[in-house]
Amino acid sequence: MTQMPVVHIVDNDVVVARATTRLLASEGFATRACTNGLEFLAQLDADVPGCVVLDLSMPGCDGLELQRRLLDRGVTLPVVFVTGHGDVPSSVRAMRDGALDFLLKPVDADALIDAVRRGIERDRDNRARRSERNAIDARLARLTPREREVLPHLLTGRLNKQIASDLGIVEKTVKVHRARILHKCGVGSLAELVRIAALAGIRATGDPLPH
Q1: Are residues 86 and 105 in the same domain?
Q2: How many other C-beta atoms are found inside a 10 Å radius of the C-beta of residue 149?
Q3: Contact 103, 81 (CB under 8 A)
Q4: Long-range pairs for 107-114 at CB < 8 Å and ≥24 separation?
Q5: What is the pTM of this model?
Q6: What is the pLDDT of residues 184-193, one digit of tens each?
Q7: What is the CATH number of the domain that holds 17?
């Protein structure tokens, strides 16, 4: 069952946090507000999809520091910064560290809603890619050491007899390995194998693939 995305609102100004919560709730977003960055970190469940609407200037743990702590934890929730005291260095650092947007207070309602929607969509895409990568890694983990050795050679598109020559084995053995690798990886063609290998960061060995 797909979890409903949550928009985390982190702003030490209680009035602003409440207003932002009301605005996003009126658009159908599930929200959770905190007025302290450390409180937010303590209650955050990174497995829940969504995004973060984050104030830049807060006592104790400001927005940029909080963004850095999220990155250090491996949390990839998209961040939308809002601030009444924006400056170029802060916005550059925020965007460099992956912020989705940097909005100035008083924030335009439409701009904030659009940024939140984009943040949730980005998070959905990121999670889908990670899920696919995890599934691919699980398939590749089923390969034997010898099959892992043969795999990069298959990705070149070379013939079985050519791969056999490269590895010093007989052609029939390569044919068997090819069939088992395709089966274990859950693909029906070399093109599909190339695609999942690329996602897993496995490079071809030998001559480049033909166009």
Answers
A1: yes
A2: 14
A3: yes
A4: 107/20, 107/82, 109/23, 112/20, 112/23, 112/24, 112/53, 112/80, 112/82, 113/23, 113/24, 113/27
A5: 0.79
A6: 999 999 999 9
A7: 3.40.50.2300
